[in-house]
Amino acid sequence: MALHYEGTLTIRAARDRVWGFLVDPQTLSRCLPDVQSLDLIEEGHFRAVLRVGVAFVKGNFTFDVAMRDLQVPAHARISGRGGGLGSAVDITSTVDLAERTDGMTDLRWVADVVVSGPIATVGARLLDSTVEKKTAELFECLKAQLEA
C-alpha cells in the first residue's frame, strides 16, 4: 500500500535553528511519537525503535534512518526502512526550509510511504488517520520546542 503526505508549517525561529533541530537525531527524537530507543550509527544515520499501533496491529518497529542530499540549511532527503510484527515500512521524505525576512522559517515537507504485511491490511483510511495524527503530534512538538 502506497501513501503520500505533504504539508507546510511556519515556525517562529531562524532557519539555522530549525535546521539544527531537524538534523540532530537526539533532539528530533524528543518529538517523534512513541520512540522507545534511538541509537546513532554514524553522522546522518540512526536506528530507532518506535511503538506502533494501528487497529489490531500493535508492537515495536525498528527503523534504520538515513539523512541524505543535505544542502545546509535548506534541504534534506530522509529515507527510512523498518519493520516489525511481520510488516515492513519504507519512507522517503524531503524537507525544505525557506528563511523569511521577518525571521521566521517556512518548512515544506513531502513523504511517500510504502507499507506491506499485516499493518497494510487495516486499510488505507485507518492507516491514514493514524499517520496524520502522529504527524500532527510531531509538528506541534517541533513548533513548541523551537518557538519556546
The structural class is alpha+beta
Structural shape = globular
Biggest β-sheet, characterized?
Answer: 7 strands, antiparallel
Number of strands: 7
Q: Cα-atom Rg, whole angstroms? A: 15 Å
Count of DSSP H/I helices? 3
Mean pLDDT level = 94
What does this structure look like?
The chain is of the alpha+beta class. The chain has a single domain, classed as 2-Layer Sandwich (Alpha-D-Glucose-1,6-Bisphosphate, Chain A, domain 4), CATH 3.30.530.20. The protein contains three helices and seven strands, in the order βααββββββα. The chain has helices at about 15-20, 25-30, 125-145, and strands at about 1-10, 35-40, 45-55, 55-70, 75-85, 85-100, 105-115. Strands 1-7-6-5-4-3-2 form a seven-stranded antiparallel sheet. The longest helix has 24 residues, at about 125-145. The model has no long low-confidence stretch (mean pLDDT about 95).
Describe the protein's topology:
Layout lengths: L1 E10 L3 H8 L2 H5 L5 E8 L2 E10 L2 E15 L3 E10 L2 E13 L5 E12 L7 H24 L1
Antiparallel strand pairs: 1-7, 2-3, 3-4, 4-5, 5-6, 6-7
Short key terms for the protein model shown above:
148 residues; alpha+beta; 3 helices; 53% strand
Short description:
It contains 3 helices and 7 strands; from the N terminus they run βααββββββα. With 148 residues, the chain is α+β, with helices and mostly antiparallel strands.
